[in-house]
Specification:
mainly alpha; two-stranded antiparallel ribbon
Amino acid sequence: MTNKILTRKDIDKAHLYWYLGGENSNSYERLQALAFCNAMAGGLKKIYADDEEGYREALTRHLEFFNTEMTIGSIIPGIVLALEERKVVEGDVDPDVITSLKLGLMGPIAGIGDSLIWGTIKAILLALAASFGLEGNPVGIIFAALYSILIFGVGRMLCRLGYNLGTNAVNKLLKSGIMNRIITSASVLGLFMMGALSASYVSLKTKISFVMSASGAEIVIQNVLDQILPGILPLGAIFGIIYFFRKKGQNYVVLVFSIIAISLLGSFLGVF
């Protein structure tokens, strides 16, 4: 399509509105629909400049239920604007196709975004920020700010990509295997980082000891455990928390109070 109506500025404006408002208007009925429609409104107004009825129909079309992860999901506003523009310029795009494509993409894109952005990148950067903050190091602020800067930059790039490539953007991301490689690499890095942070900040030792009746030698359980595997008790605590999450879900309140109760009881009995 050579006769483009929208400029890069229009696409960037749509992404900015999506970035700022994507999670601010959620409702049980339509979730992110209002924010998505608001992000589209400026571009649609320019596309349907002389067609007031077409503009109203487009706004109504994009007020339907919508929900996805916001960063990787930024590719969807770009694709939708490209299709709406093509619908007006070339007239070979059915409105139902736009709606179906948008709704069809939101699930798979959300799965990628939740795994990559929320499950990996956010966890790593904010864990680093927290670790530096606990030490009183101001570098932690940089890692905290880096997360917001990163997701904004990635979202803007994907929104532009979605507009420039249209429906081909999906094939480029999903079928090329690029996203799968990124997710795998980020997941491996995340495992290393979580393991390092766990080893550094989880401290657990036992005070249990006993005296051998025959020789009178004192056996300190912690020394024995350290000879078997240094840090085995913190490792066991981490695996216990993971097991709790798998069995009981992400019930953080119960987990925190359980850890406090076990710590107090163990300290009272002289175990820890």
